[in-house]
Amino acid sequence: xxxxxxxxxxxxxxxxxxxxxxxxxxxxxxxxxxxxxxxxxxxxxxxxxxxxxxxxxxxxxxxxxxxxxxxxxxxxxxxxxxxxxxxxxxxxxxxxxxxxxxxxxxxxxxxxxxxxxxxxxxxxxxxxxxxxxxxxxxxxxxxxxxxxxxxxxxxxxxxxxxxxxxxxxxxxxxxxxxxxxxxxxxxxxxxxxxxxxxxxxxxxxxxxxxxxxxxxxxxxxxxxxxxxxxxxxxxxxxxxxxxxxxxxxxxxxxxxxxxxxxxxxxxxxxxxxxxxxxxxxxxxxxxxxxxxxxxxxxxxxxxxxxxxxxxxxxxxxxxxxxxxxxxxxxxxxxxxxxxxxxxxxxxxxxxxxxxxxxxxxxxxxxxxxxxxxxxxxxxxxxxxxxxxxxxxxxxxxxxxxxxxxxxxxxxxxxxxxxxxxxxxxxxxxxxxxx
Length: 434
Ligand SMILES: *Cc1c(COP(=O)(O)O)cnc(C)c1O
Description:
There is one protein chain. The protein is an alpha/beta fold and about 425 residues long. It folds into two domains: about 85-105 and about 220-395, Rossmann fold, CATH 3.40.50; about 120-215 and about 405-434, Rossmann fold (3-Layer(aba) Sandwich). It contains 20 helices and 13 strands. The strands form three sheets. The protein has a six-stranded mixed sheet, sandwiched between helices. Strands 8-5-6-7-13 form a five-stranded parallel sheet, sandwiched between helices. Helix 6 links the parallel strand 5 and strand 6 (about 155-160). Helix 4 packs antiparallel against helix 5 (about 105-120). The chain is globular, with a radius of gyration of 20 Å. It starts with a strand and ends with a helix. The structure holds pyridoxal-5'-phosphate. Pyridoxal-5'-phosphate binds near residues 215, 247, 253, 301 and 382.
């Protein structure tokens, strides 16, 4: 199966080409030419299947004969070697905990799958592969963990100065080895623009093999559809419509869910839940897409003003606002509402929401109350609350526990290269560090 660019000015690519390039030559994002369809018998069999079994079948539908089945099976099992529990928080409302991977954010799912697939596709490549990743907080460390010490691969993480939590910054800047952290004097959107510019730059692409590890890379998107099937399978026997609520920034996670639905998963409805950076909810309400500069919030991994995956969602809905808004409802919440939800859910249910999950929880609760559809719902819990320790502790007014997995980062020495929001500076840095 081939992959096409959402800008439609570049030719089609095979999966290995799409994964290695990251972004198409015309600046578009890769999408599968046809959305693979999974048979009803597969959907019916979900409750009896493990996460890894489900992931293998879904991955194989995208990968087809580009990776031998035995290697793909091993790859999926290695990438998903941690649990993704579904916890009932209150009646009919479930948290899908995506944060039990090594860096404790859902980005581990995509990054672990992508790094392994990329290593496989470049196994005969003699040039060094440079992976560029813009991060709003969690992507960078998940990608670093996925590629750390992989021979032949250099990773460059662009993070916005002063806009990630202290623990997130530790997780970005303390790796050393083949991981270089770059602090950009700007916002996440600036980092994302610089990364895209590097990928499209002819001169740079002559001297090295550049690729992107953001959710613009199709290899991160594919695995983000696996867990929708897995969660749905666990609720299927209740015989009620199932809604998914996704805390969204760049909308890669939600696009993974929309892909699952397009493949045949009978999801009743999706909720796109955002913080004050609400360009997509605004679009869903009005039909007008008006990207703008992002504003900082306490759910910082969602501070995105011009979400990349908007282009992919438009493809899935054939650029039809009516289709789009019939399948997805947008909800947006302030920092105060986020903090109240964290306090309230902890008090009533002893469940600790992180600021991102809290927004998805609110979106789900409000949608279920308004729609009166008799549906049950899953909100995606995308990070461990301890990653946002300062916000959590000031909200709850008591200390929270830091898991050992995160504690190891606290005493490490930070190292990063500061640059201005300037492509020339980045380009020189990428060329020089050979
Ligand atoms: C990245 C991130 C999000 C947003 O995911 P998108 O795929 O960019 O929409 C939400 N929550 C957390 C914790 C994240 O790290």
